[in-house]
């Protein structure tokens, strides 16, 4: 599902987030990515319990209990229509904006009960940013794409805004490419640059979690590689949950993977584990068939 239409500038609102954590759970001296062992695990930053979602009367997924570990990359994989995007949308309550969408079960993020009707969903969306399949920069200049969410959060001092914009564009590897044309329209950038700008737009608000819904699938192979490298580089600083149909990508960058599948008309979590285990020694026959390209 392309949820880009769901997001308004209002979704980029509200301050009050802790600084991103600095721990880097992965990556050895050679830069080779290694999956963490379960024994090394901190508590999950987010935990869903028996999470279920309906659109109207139609059940989409049911009873999903899934930990999402801090600083790690978790990949959601599975065939089209099994509810991966819908699951992502629950985590920052974008589901509130979908008519006749009903979510039940529990989502804990630290001490926060995410599904509590009383919590500030706008504040939550600042802590849990979302990146969509199709890059969706505002039809404004590059600079304004980043200044706008800052201004909405009360950061207006020009020097401070410029400093945050520069460091965030550095973070996403875009500074050198755009520093001489910050007033150019964002829509004039290439698809891959636009997607990195959208990631920067989420990062200026210092989120803890990034939800990435097939962030590379609309990009050419080179741009896709650049965005994938960026996601891998952000490991440890942000908790990332990525929906991808690209199993090779999941294997390259994720620490954990979760396989969703429609069974008896409803999406189910079939298996969750370290990415290495999911690909090399899956516990479920369906996972083995999926990762080996036999099913799905
Ligand atoms: N707003 C909506 N209203 C009603 N049904 C919806 C809505 N959004 C998605 N669906 C349906 O819910 C099911 C799950 O969709 P979802 O996009 O979550 O699956 P997905 O696994 O992410 O699929 P894909 O990999 O193709 O993006 C699909 O049958 C879809 O048609």
TrEMBL record:
Compositional bias per record (Polar residues), positions renumbered to this chain: 1-17
Keyword Transit peptide among record annotations: no
Listed GO CC annotations: membrane
Gene3D superfamilies per UniProt: P-loop containing nucleotide triphosphate hydrolases
Domain (ABC transporter): residue spans on this chain: 46-291
GO biological process: phosphate ion transmembrane transport
SMART domains cross-referenced by the UniProt entry: AAA (SM00382)
Keyword flag Transport: yes
InterPro entries reported in the protein's UniProt record: AAA+_ATPase, ABC_transporter-like_ATP-bd, ABC_transporter-like_CS, P-loop_NTPase, PstB-like
Region spans: Disordered: 1-34
Origin superkingdom: Bacteria
SUPFAM superfamilies: P-loop containing nucleoside triphosphate hydrolases
Residue runs in coiled coils: none
GO molecular-function terms, A-Z: ATP binding; ATP hydrolysis activity; phosphate transmembrane transporter activity
UniProt keyword list: ATP-binding, Nucleotide-binding, Transport
Name of this chain's protein: Phosphate ABC transporter ATP-binding protein, PhoT family
Species assigned in the record: Allocoleopsis franciscana PCC 7113
